[in-house]
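Handoff note, outgoing to incoming analyst
You'll be picking up this chain. Sequence as last confirmed:
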Amino acid sequence: MNTPLVAQNLVLRTLRQVNDPELDCNIVDLGLIYDIQIEGTKVRVVMTLTTPGCPMHESIRWGVHNVLLSLEGVEEVDVDIVWDPPWNPAMMTPAGRERTGVLF
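Most recent structure output, in case you need it:
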């Protein structure tokens, strides 16, 4: 087992730089990040998008990949986009709901 060279909380903070341009909110506060696995210099992100037909699919994936590669200690990034469980607004953080105007 390889010891992670980067902390999970740093990965999450860094992922906040990636916005869903249609909703003008970062992917963490939207609740799109399902899992982060770090092994040595490799980071794997399991995430979803708000809709399966999201036209920004590749742009968001590319953003996640590139922003994480900019972290010291990260040499490889895998971004897996999944559809189960399906995303819903209840997955958003309070900051995400405030940013997008979604109320519960």
